[in-house]
């Protein structure tokens, strides 16, 4: 891409300066000019001192007396107004740098979420463009103060990692916007769950892409977004423009946790409303614990039912061969059984680590 020179408005002076020079050239007093243009003398003084703008009506009147076209006066005014606005903008950007420093900028650049930039102003501009807001105050209104609840329905105000979490969520929105899907169908989604569970059991190399395809067929967007160090989040579910979106990090890099999280998020879509947004592994003010438990139960039942789990525990043998036997019997990956037994403290957290698949969503 060619280097673009910084744009500087061509007019950095108020049209009042031009008017003052023209009246001097014409040898005309302010009072006479005011009479000839049918404008109050104080208005002409205000224009000449830069305290008032030249309006369309004024420009036409000035044209009759000065013989300078109205569009000339208006163009100078527009150029000056733009110059003032850009100067104000630069001041805002300078003040916003303290806000920008609260984000994990280096990591966001490394991930390619924002361009690699170096100066303070460039970093602020990159963040504002990333979030599609004009000021740091606008970011606060959207993510912290819930000024637009229809779009972002929880407040990150009391979350320690608010800035990093907002960046992670925003990146998920960007990814989801680029992903085509069918129209959402709860019926198709429920019918697709067995295929998803089979994918979990088989664990093919391309399982992550194939899972996205299965979700897309049911009208669900599944995106994988790397976890920011300051945002230890595991997943999120929300509806974006009436389309359900699941966002996952895979940060634990274990197939048992990945699949539990996925079906947990799927549970939120099937069990809860479009107005909810859910963040996993993060405590926030609007968190609804009863809905989180319902999603946990949904995920547990899909992967390994209570009856199946009880059968495994009751027989008392938790050797690797026995776990493989029950995994094949119940059509699930051995790592899922290991993870469940570890979670319920039936076996130690280090037992059968070799049966758990390591997951790398990002190369």
TrEMBL record:
<dbReference type="GO" id="GO:0003677">
    <property type="term" value="F:DNA binding"/>
</dbReference>
<dbReference type="InterPro" id="IPR010359">
    <property type="entry name" value="IrrE_HExxH"/>
</dbReference>
<dbReference type="InterPro" id="IPR013430">
    <property type="entry name" value="Toxin_antidote_HigA"/>
</dbReference>
<keyword id="KW-0238">DNA-binding</keyword>
<feature type="domain" description="IrrE N-terminal-like">
    <location>
        <begin position="253"/>
        <end position="340"/>
    </location>
</feature>
<dbReference type="InterPro" id="IPR010982">
    <property type="entry name" value="Lambda_DNA-bd_dom_sf"/>
</dbReference>
<dbReference type="Pfam" id="PF06114">
    <property type="entry name" value="Peptidase_M78"/>
</dbReference>
<protein>
    <submittedName>
        <fullName>Addiction module antidote protein, HigA family</fullName>
    </submittedName>
</protein>
């Amino acid at each position: 891409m060619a280097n673009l020179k910084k744009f500087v408005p061509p007019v950095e002076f108020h049209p009042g300066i031009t008017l003052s020079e023209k009246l001097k050239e014409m040898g005309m007093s302010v009072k006479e000019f005011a009479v000839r243009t049918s404008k109050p003398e104080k208005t002409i003084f205000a224009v000449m001192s830069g305290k008032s703008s030249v309006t369309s009506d004024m420009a036409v009147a000035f044209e009759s007396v000065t013989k300078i076209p109205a569009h000339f006066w208006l163009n100078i005014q527009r150029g000056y107004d733009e110059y003032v606005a850009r100067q104000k903008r630069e001041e805002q950007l300078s003040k916003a740098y303290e806000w920008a420093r609260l984000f994990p900028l280096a990591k966001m650049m490394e991930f390619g979420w924002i361009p690699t930039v170096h100066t303070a102003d460039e970093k602020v501009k990159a963040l504002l463009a990333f979030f599609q807001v004009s000021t740091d105050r606008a970011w606060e209104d959207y993510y912290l103060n819930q000024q637009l609840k229809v779009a972002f329905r929880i407040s990150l105000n009391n979350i320690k990692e608010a800035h990093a979490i907002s960046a992670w969520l925003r990146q998920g929105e960007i990814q989801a916007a680029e992903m085509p899907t069918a129209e959402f169908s709860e019926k198709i989604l429920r019918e697709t769950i067995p295929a998803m569970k089979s994918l979990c059991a088989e664990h093919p190399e391309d399982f992550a892409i194939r899972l996205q395809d299965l979700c897309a067929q049911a009208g669900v967007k599944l995106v994988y977004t790397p976890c920011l160090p300051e945002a230890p989040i595991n997943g999120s579910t929300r509806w974006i423009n009436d389309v359900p979106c699941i966002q996952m990090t895979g940060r634990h890099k274990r197939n048992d946790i990945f699949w539990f999280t996925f079906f947990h998020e799927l549970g939120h879509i099937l069990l809860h409303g479009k107005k909810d947004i859910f963040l996993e592994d993060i405590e926030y003010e609007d968190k609804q614990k009863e809905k989180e438990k319902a999603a946990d139960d949904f995920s547990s039942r899909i992967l390994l039912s209570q009856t199946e789990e009880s059968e495994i525990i009751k027989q008392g043998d938790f050797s690797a061969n026995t776990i493989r036997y029950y995994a094949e019997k119940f059509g699930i990956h051995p790592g899922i059984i290991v993870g469940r037994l570890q979670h319920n403290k039936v076996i130690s957290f280090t037992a059968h680590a070799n049966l758990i698949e390591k997951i790398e969503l990002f190369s």
